[in-house]
Amino acid sequence: MRLRSNWVLVVLVLVAISVSGWTALGQRQGATSTQWEYMLKPLGVPEREVPPILNELGMQGWELVTVSDGRAYFKRQKK
User: Fold this and answer.
1) Strand, helix or coil at 39?
2) What per-residue confidence (pLDDT) applies to 39?
3) More confident residue, 5 or 41
4) Which listed residue, 4, 20, 65, 74, has the most CB atoms within 10 A of its CB?
5) What are the residue ranges spanned by the domains of the chain?
6) What are 12-57's pLDDT values in tens digits?
7) Helices (H), the chain
8) What phi and psi values does residue 31 have, to the nearest 5 degrees?
9) Are residues 78 and 35 in contact, defined by beta-carbon separation less than 8 angstroms?
10) What's residue 20's pLDDT?
11) Which residues contact 44 (CB under 8 A, 6 or more apart)?
12) Residue 75 and residue 65: Cα distance in Å, rounded?
C-alpha cells in the first residue's frame, strides 16, 4: 500500500512540473520583453509629506517604486 501511495505522489509531482514548464514555455514564446527606464529624484521634504512633483511625474507615466533616505526611485515602461 505504501509503495502505491509513493507512486501516486511521484506521478502528481511529474504532472505538476510538466504543466508548469509547458505554461512557462508558452508565455516565453508569445510574450515580448518589457523594457523599463529608471529615475532617481531627491525629494527634499520629510517622508510623511507628499511633494507636488509626484503628481506631475505620475502624469508622465512614472511609477514610484520606493522612497529611501529622502530619495524617490521611479520606473516607467520605455516607449
Assistant:
1) strand
2) 93
3) 41
4) 74
5) 1-31, 36-77
6) 666 566 656 655 555 555 567 889 999 998 877 666 667 778 888 8
7) 2-30, 53-59
8) -95, 145
9) yes
10) 61
11) 51, 70
12) 7
